[in-house]
Amino acid sequence: MGRYLTDSTGLSVGGHIPQMEHGVPHNEDGVGGMHLYMPWWLDNSKLDFPRGYHIELGGGRHAPNFGFMGGIQRFNGVGGYGPQLKEDYRRFYGATINLAGRGEMVPNEGSYCEIDPNVVDSYGIPVLRFHFKWTDHERLQARHMQNTFREIIHALGGTPLSRAPGPDTGYGLENGGRIIHEVGTTRMGADSKTSVVNQHCQAHDVKNLFIADGGPFVSNADKNVTWTILALSMRTAEHIAQQRNQGGV
Question: Residue 27 — very low, low, confident or very high, per pLDDT cuts 50/70/90?
Answer without folding.
Answer: confident
